[in-house]
UniProtKB/TrEMBL annotation:
Domain of life, source organism: Bacteria
Annotated keywords: Transcription, Transcription regulation
Domain Tetracyclin repressor-like C-terminal: 107-191
Key word Transcription regulation present: yes
A Pfam cross-reference name: TetR_C_13
Keyword presence, Signal: no
Protein name, as recorded: TetR family transcriptional regulator
Amino acid sequence: MSGERELTAKGLATRERIVEYAAAVTRERGAANTRMECVRVAANVSNSQLFHYFPQGKAEMMIAVARYESRTILADQDARLRTTRTWRAWDEWAEALLGHYDENGSRCGLAALLGQLDQDAPEIREVLAGLLESWEQAIAAGIRSMQSARKISPDLDADTTAGTIVTGILGGIVQMTVTGSTNRLRATVRASIATLKAARQ
């Protein structure tokens, strides 16, 4: 967004700190109820600082929050999935994922992202679409690692399977935000692992 490339290293660090606090406020209150003043207080900055880094106001800050949440989610998923070569690693991925949503519920980064979607936020949709695509790629890479290790049949289409898994996770998260329960998400993740194990070579 505007001004990012003109900031000093100190300025970039300050902006990132504000974004981190904005993300925390958004997860707690929801995008609709997040106010610039709430972020200003949480980050302990002045109004002039806040609008120096986000001159376009809340809309610009929310895009920065979406990118931050996307990076955070992908960093965790990439670390867990791209070199997954054992069934134990897949089980640990599943339990870590479910544990995260059991602990955070709708106060999670992806739920916060979904809460920002509307017809007037094409940048948010772009960020979310990129996140889902990269997440699918990470899962597909993990499946291919298992195929290279001769633990999953090469007949399994890694890309299609990864897309199905991410779609299921996304649906489970949406339902969680509506019902407050992770039961469907848990069933979906465990069914995904069962599908992979059913394709053992």
